[in-house]
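Morning F.,

Quick status update on the modeling queue. The single chain you submitted on Monday has been processed. Sequence for confirmation:
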Amino acid sequence: MTGGQLMAAAERRLGPYWSMTRSQVYRELPVLAEMGYVRLGKPGPRSSQPYAITAAGKRAFSRWLAEPAGRDALRNPIALRVAFGEQHSGNQLQTLYTGASEYHSEAMAMAKEQAKEAKKAGDQYGAAALEFAVAYHKAALSWLKVAPTT
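Structure tokens below.
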């Protein structure tokens, strides 16, 4: 797959609970190739560069899966702004909360649908990860209802 195809596939599978950027994907692919974890394919249309995982890459992925997961890195831009709520007007906070509520409502609906599809396809692990995303958005919506407005 090309970097764009990898990004699209990652967004579909991981997007509801893991953020990434296109620049991260494109930055890491040459590093992974240099390490022997992926190999370059034949350039495609418009100089697109496909990659394929190697046996060494599969072994490295298996090792990574066996490592301790580490701690969550919580970075919520709404909570960060609320921490400085005294510097906001009530109107600013309400606009912030409204936008966040719309986002979390839409993201929760999408994650619910994806979880349903994963369950239907027999992907219990993908469905479980998506249920985490549903619970996260549900918790964010609950918090937004009680966050201070003045």
